Amino acid sequence: MKIRSLLCLVLSLLTIGPASLSADDSAPLTYEIDLRTVREGFDGKTCWVQARAGAIPQSDDFPATVVLTMQKLLLTGSDVFYALNEMRTNDGKNWIGPIKHETLARRRLSDTREIAICDFTPGWHAKTKKLLGTGHSVRYENNKVMHVRKRSVAYSVYNQQDHTWSDWTTMSMPDESRFEDCGAGSAQRWDLQDGTILLPVYFKPKKEKQYSTTVVLCDFDGEKLTYKKHGSTHTVPVKRGLYEPSITKFQQKYYLTMRNDDKGYVSVSDDGLNYSKPVVWKFGDGEELGNYNTQQHWVTHSDGLFLVYTRRGANNDHVFRHRAPLFMAEVDPATLRVKRDTERIIVPEKGARMGNFAVVNISPSETWVVVAEWMQPIGIEKYGSNNRVYTSRIKWSRPSKTE
Length: 403
What we know:
Largest sheet: 7 strands, antiparallel
Number of helices: 1
Structural class: mainly beta
Helix content: under 10%
Order of helices and strands: HEEEEEEEEEEEEEEEEEEEEEEEEEEEEE
Strand content: 35-45%
CATH topology: Neuraminidase
Shape: globular
CATH class: Mainly Beta
Distance between the termini: 48 Å
Radius of gyration: 22 Å
Number of domains: 1
CATH architecture: 6 Propeller
């Protein structure tokens, strides 16, 4: 009898085990938010902006070495950026930096003109085991942005051994006039399993007002980024068109979100290169999302597609272009609409804009949204901002599954 009872118990456990796992997998995906401040402090003349991070996998207690880049901005100008700096952590708690990198600094072109790299986003490239950062170039004359200028896709590669970045350089695009002003500023890219990269870019042909967005298929050998081909191009006849695009992949389809001066747009693709006609971001009930004139980025889990964005209508009229707080909500991939009842604030606003941010996967169980309080216009510190650099750590109820 004892043996029979033991056998029954074993059979019972074998039956219950898989059923329990299945029940866990079928439960709604949830997450907790752990908001942390990496650094803070405002000198009243400059501020840290464009805070974005990449994660280098490691096998110690913490799953990744996180390399965060950011650059100083002169408050009395518009997009007047200086050299990129690095902050770094191996445990998620203690940070080294900021460390200035001369290889990511301005270069003098003449007595009055300089060129710099900006809107930089680091990302791990698994095939070459390199951290690759992409952005674009910006030109200055007498320390003011040259609005009639050539923009290029710019990039740099990180050396993990000595913690340096290579001299930033540019990727050659097809020799066509429309690509003379082409950049990958603030873009969220997608790396394919074979190591090729889907890099969203935007460009403006000569004498045209609107930017167009496309996705470029690139090769990367660990040192050089090379154009292979590009997909469909998209714009809208509204002010500056479609620009600052970001891409993700979810359940065998690719999704592209794009900035416009009046409204954010989204599109979908089967192959990552050719996209449907862009549509305005809306909530599920048909009301427009309210995002405008700033970026949106993706947070992607195998069991859910999410958008991080800013919008009007959140008691935030005092914030420049309503670029704070940062919201996160689930997207219905079938309708390309945001599920209003899932919307959460993941970084609260204290008067400063936070439209320039990035997303980095730390592990299958944790994703970070990295952002800095941009201290323009002058005087917004009265609302409590202090040029904080935040990591909003999204901790999933279950790990994301890889493809």
